[in-house]
Amino acid sequence: MGRSRHTSFAIMTVAAIAAGALLLEHTGFLAGAFRTEILARVDDGDVVNAADIAGGRMR
Predict the structure, then answer these.
(1) With 80 as the cut, is the pLDDT of residue 20 above it?
(2) Residue 12's pLDDT band (boundaries 50, 70, 90)?
(3) In the chain, how long is the greatest CA-to-CA distance?
């Protein structure tokens, strides 16, 4: 006899919520909600290049 597979209600709910969130983000309703802008500043003194490592001139 064949055995039917039972799909969990919780799995279906999570899948529906995820699909809905992706659809809302794709349509622009949630534009920017899942994006983060990273603002950073790097000083010249903080940069280490390959010559510094090969020459053993680490600070």
Answers:
(1) yes
(2) very high
(3) 74
